[in-house]
Structure formats: structure tokens, C-alpha cells
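Predict the structure of N-acetyltransferase domain-containing protein.
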Amino acid sequence: MKFMGAMTLRWGQGRVAYCPIFQAGSPNMRVLKTERLCLRWFEPSDVDYVLEQISEAGWKRNISDPGVNDLAAARDWMEAKLFNWYWPQGLGLWAMERLSDGVVVGMCGLLQRDHLQAPDIGYALLPRYEGAGYAREAAQACRAYAHDVLGEPLLFGTTATFNEASGRVLQAIGMQRLSTGPLGDSTEDSHLYGVGEACRLSEDAQVRDLLARFFAVFDNRIGRHAPLAALPYFFLPEAVISRASLPGEAAGVQRMSVREFVEPRVQMLAPGGRLQEFSEWVSEQQVQVSGRVAQVWLRYRKSGILDGQAFEGGGEKTVQLVKPGRRWKIAAIAWQDRD
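Done. Here is the predicted structure for N-acetyltransferase domain-containing protein.
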């Protein structure tokens, strides 16, 4: 077992309350796919793998001993340490599922630690699956996902000073060792690796970049995977999405949480879903930034195949954003389709 973190992981302490993510009928949230692996959100049915993973001697040596000895305790651990990241953060550790047989061989993902200015990559493998290149393949994909989908120009990785194998994986995906010393509230030394540099875009350009990435995740043309699992990363957890009624419908507004907005679109845009060959793009926009708040008015166009019928359409959106930390987040969206 290898993990790119030398200290005890601190999932959401003092920041995020428990969010009961999985309910009956929740869609499978696939994050990305590689040649051999699918990385997806963990589900309660993965409890057997999780219990085995966190009981491994390597996990206890490199991370911590969670004191989990049975399935019931493993379920509680999953709720607190895995599920709690997904909707509030849009990040977390994801199941590393082998495409050939559906076996979960490990976990890999992106975590935002309080003491780092950008996310870092973490991973773990069961010992019997080490040596097959899965860690490097998943870590490389997470690096690309962070940059290409989430828009993170800077990424970190940490290892225990004695964990040379994990250091080699980080270096293999382009990271360089930056420093060695205690990180966060740990008293033990860790190696800190990194790749990229902090964002240098203007505030206006950052807002425009975020909205471009927002629209891009809905694109499932030519067999693309629409990475809708990224959407919670773009929003405040308490964001409100509102859809005005269509022309000809009774006047009204449909209000949705981030989850209520995302879940049906995951089902619609999945392979075999109702909506295929879909894309949506901005045709006109006006951006106003004042300090840490911003407002965008835009027109959009869209096209696709819905229930087997090709269509085109468009409308208007208004987007309110805030910058609570280093990144802009969407606080509210309201839209109306015109055709």
C-alpha cells in the first residue's frame, strides 16, 4: 500500500459537516477514465474493499490506524472520510475500479488540505495490485483532471520521508521535490512535491475561465465522458440554481440545490442516457467584478440529441459569484431557455 501523504489525513475538520451523500437512486458519479481504470465516487457497496484497505499495515504505517475492525465501523469511516468530501468540496478520494472486471484495486484522488495553497494527489493500493502501474496511471490522470477540468494550475503531492516508491510515482508524473519538513500540525517530516505555478490570471479572466469550464463539463459529443462530478467544485455548497419557466408554460421558477441540479444531468448525459451529442456554449457575455463579488449575464446556445431527436436551442443565464478564498465560486445561477 502506498499513499502520498505522510501525516494523518484531516478530512473536513472544522469545515464541513457530514453530508449524507448516497440515497436510493443516486447515479454513479464517474470522475474520469484511463486505459485500464475508472475513477468514481465511492459507494456504500465498496465497504469490503475499504475495510481491507484501511486495515493494511502499510496504511497504518503511512497514514494512521483508524481503529476500524468491522464492516459497521468501516461504513462510519466512509461517511466521515470519503463521502463527506464529494458534494461540499467536489474533491476527495475516488474508487480506482479496473475496467476489465470491475474490481476496486485502490483509491486515488485530490484533497484540499488547510496547509496547502492548492490540492494534492493521494492514492492507496491493496498490496496484491502493486507493481502493475495502476498508481502512476491514476495519479497521472488526476493531474490532468485537476489542470484540464478543474482549472488548477498548481498541484502538490506529499510523502513520508521513507516512502521512496511514492516519491518515484510523483516524479514520474512530472512533480519535483520542493521541500522537506513538518506540514500542517504534524511534527514529523514529509517530502512536499509540486508541479505548475499559482494562477496569474486577472480576476475578470478567472471568472471567464470558470464559466468556460462550467459549460465544458456538459459536453458528451463523440463519445466523450461528461465530467459532471466536477460541478460541486465550481459551486459554493449552499448555492442556489433557478430555472424560469419556458415560454408557453405556467409562470414559475424551479429552484434546485447543487445536488438536485447535478444528479439528473449525470443520468441524462451518461452513455445510453436520454441526452447525447450535447454541447452548450456562450455566445455573448458581460462580466462585472467588484472586489470579491462578481456578476455575469450571458446568452448561450446548445445542441444535441434528446430522446433520439436532434435539437438546437438557447437562452440567457445570470450568474453570481464570490471569492471566499483563492478561487471564485458560483453562488447562484438563474436561467431561462428561449427556444
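The longest strand covers residues 275-290.
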